[in-house]
Amino acid sequence: MSRHPEGKFVLFDVTYADGTRRSNRKVRSELLGGLDGDEPARAEIDAQDQRIAAASGKPALTIVTLARSAG
Length: 71
Known about the structure:
Layout: E1 9-16, E2 21-28, H1 39-56, E3 63-68
Antiparallel strand pairs: 1-2, 1-3
């Protein structure tokens, strides 16, 4: 059984300042919409990146662009 119910996430493609790209980054759909649109996804993915950086010992990358994944 998965930790999260299916269909409760929106996937994003992220481009970082060093030119790398990560596809299908998950953000809970309940964080999105309203007046801020998809902007809360940036904060959520940045927080995810900070946790990953802390665990790996490597610095977090700066997000340049963020867009919903196609399909």
